[in-house]
Amino acid sequence: MSHAVDEVPLTLEGRPPKTLGVLDQGALWANLGVSLLGFSGALFLLNPLGNAPLSLVAALVATVVGSLIGTAMVGLSAIPGTQTGQPAMVLLRGLFGARMSYVPTALNIVQMLGWGAFELWVIAKAATAIFGDVPYQVWVVAAGLLTTALTIWPLGSVRILRRYVTIGVIISMIWFTWFLVSEAPAHTGGSWTAFAPAVDYVIALSVSWVPVAADFARHSRSSRAAFTGVVGGYTLAQVACLGLGVYAVAIAGAAAVTADSTAVFGPFVAVPLGALFFGILALRETDQSFANVYSTTVSLQNLMPRVDRRIFSVAIGVLTIAIALVVDVTSYGAFLGVIGAVFVPMFAVLAVDYFVFGGSRNWNTAEDAPSRWSMLLPWALGFAAYWLTTSTPTVAAWDGYWASVRELIGFTRQPWMNGALGAAVVAALVTMAVGLLRSRQNRQNQDSAAR
Description:
single chain, mainly alpha, Hydantoin permease, CodB, transmembrane helix
């Protein structure tokens, strides 16, 4: 079999090869679960409200609980991609209709461009922490060119991750754990008060990949392999990443990391052979930018299905480099909250409609798939439920607006409430109601026709 046959087809009209096994996908998602800025994310995990630090046990439990919930969502969102052979945004044709799917597609393109540029920024900052004499701009361009190359040969890139990169990442993580855990000051005090927003934050880290999962799972050999690869690989890696981040933040100092999130890189570079192993992690970070740029590419193909994806890859790669050269990242936690609010309820609507109401048997991903306006209602209500129940702060004006809405409708948010779960439950229940009404209407129409 030729390499061309083993690769992603150039347009949506090509048949996707089913070449990724559970180890390929487990390695891909394990690498995606380790993020350089995920280490500084431990700061949000430990103190998501800014005034109620968690105990170490509470933070670690929140990491495990949030990771399992979030990756289960991502894993389930991957299954329709495996079964239909379609990327994520094309799947939304079956949920919302072809033309209405353009709205979430546009949102996904914007957020993936942002994430891609963010990852190039992270890689360049990590590289300058090791090689301070080389300008930031040089590393951005180098990382962007490598990212673009990986995007042109995506399935080959996944196989390289499994065979070579994952081993280096595992060794590096073990090496850093050995030194940082012994050097970090003891984490004392704290409580469980902010447990719910901490879980919210971890879920948001995971579900930010919901719009990406099917883009790779469409090449999975089975639904079980796709789900297992996502949940197993990403959960283990994210728990390890955030857990190690707790100790790195303790060494760097919470104040320093708050002022500059890249300050967390210092403790890694400072350990024996730290520059070598941190360099491995920095090079591995290109899998994050690769996944984001590739998802942008196949999202664009939902809008223009007959355009060669390589053209999109090069154009998006150049644009991502340009953004990373002029944009800094200052609101990482707020960005994650917005992503969770959009894609958690959308996932819940998709999951209920696809798995419960037989969508898997007749999911329409054609270019003329009819609009399904009723599916906007559970998505919108789930979005609102997220902001009514979340306790994670984002932007002051936005948070103030939803505080006013709570007061207007007489709703009091309880400390145990979780935005991601609230959004998912509301969106799922409303989708169930819409589906039952639709089924009842179909039966009445069939009875009328029979008469």
